[in-house]
Amino acid sequence: MKKHDRKVLNELCNYLGEDLENPMCQELIQHVNECPDCQFYLDTVKMTVNIFRETHPTTPVPENVKKDLIKSLKLNKK
Amino acid sequence: METDRTAYLVKQAKIGDQAAFTELVELYSERIYNLALRILKNPDDAADILQETFLAVYEKIDSFDGRSNFFTWLYRIATNFALMKLRKEKRTIYTDQDMEEQFDDPEKMHIHEWQDLPLQDMLNDEFRRHLDEAIDRLPEIYRSVFVLRDLENMSIRETSHILGITESNVKIRLKRARVYMREELAHYMEEHIKGTPSK
Fold first, then answer.
1. B18, B150, B170 member nearest A53 (Cβ)
2. What separation in angstroms does the CA of B125 have from each of A44, A56, B114, B121?
3. Which of A23, A56, B36, B113 could form a disulfide bond with B46, CB atoms 3.0-4.6 angstroms apart?
4. What angle do the packed helices A26-34 and A36-55 form, to 10 degrees?
């Protein structure tokens, strides 16, 4: 990554802990739009999150687990 | 997240309506099971957490005062059980200090040429195993934030309520976890896919 202003880098870094789809800092957006390295970095962080979502889909609760749960709670299943 | 139906079922369950409690279990067991599975990476452990969570809810529902969202309350109980299990049984390779030193300095960011790789073709078992191992190495305080925020789609505010930490802390932990995950993926791409060097 090429040399950046420290302030911009810190803002970029803070942004990585925010909602990635809703950047709030106009100065940061402007910088990222003009800087291929930062754009690339942000894109790959977003891609990482998407890959983890895609590789960890929702799994149905196994039937035996459901039965054990109802039994342990001593509930009568409808 | 909270619906009128849930509010009604909670109210009924508090006065001992078993059918209402059964419906709550049916409504939320899949999400609780998946939350535990994503944190603990083991179906048997996830089944245990599911059972412990609803047993605790069954015993404590009288004390649920409705000030917080039922779903947040439920998630908080499940997350606490999952984290307790993690603390008892597992070790993480990275410490909190490692995370701070390695993933807080923006000038240490590495860029690897992996953005244009055919990711759909790579989503195989080996790749998934690598991702799971990467999550396993993540200290629990980061793992829980990453799972709740990025895999369970909870808001920063909900995540802070569930974990009992400030929103600022959620953001700091989320940033470190995301950067860590990105670096893990980048190294994997570099070593296994193309052997491309960093810029």
1. B150
2. 21, 12, 19, 11
3. B36
4. 100
Looking at the domain covering B4-89, what would its CATH class be? mainly alpha
Higher pLDDT, residue A15 or B141: B141
Which of the residue ranges B13-17, B74-78, B136-140, B146-150 would you say has the lowest mean pLDDT? B136-140
Could you report the per-residue pLDDT of B20-61, keeping only the tens digit for each?
Answer: 999 999 999 999 999 999 999 899 999 999 999 999 999 999
Q: Does any CB of chain B come closer than 8 Å to the CB of residue A29?
A: no
Q: Has residue A48 been placed in a domain? A: yes
> Look-up: residue for tokens 């790579």?
B122
Q: How far is CA A25 from CA A28, A30, A37, in A?
A: 5, 9, 18
pLDDT value, residue B110: 60
Q: Domain B96-194 adopts which CATH fold? A: Arc Repressor Mutant, subunit A (1.10.10)
Is the ipTM higher than 0.85? The answer is no
**pLDDT tops 90 at residue B82:** yes
Residue B40: exposure state from Cβ atoms within 10 A (0-12, 13-18, ≥19): buried
- Side chain identity at B136, as an amino acid letter? D
**B109/A16 touch (CB, cutoff 8 Å), yes or no:** no
| A59 contact residues in B (CB cutoff 8 A) | 33-34, 37
- Check CB contact under 8 Å for A52 and B131: yes
Domain that holds residue A46: 6-72
Provide the number of structural domains found in chain A: 1
Spatial CB neighbours of B31, under 8 Å, sequence gap ≥ 6: B152
Residues of B in contact with A51 (CB under 8 A): 119, 123, 131, 185
Of B122, B29, B47, B88, the closest CA to residue A54 belongs to: B122
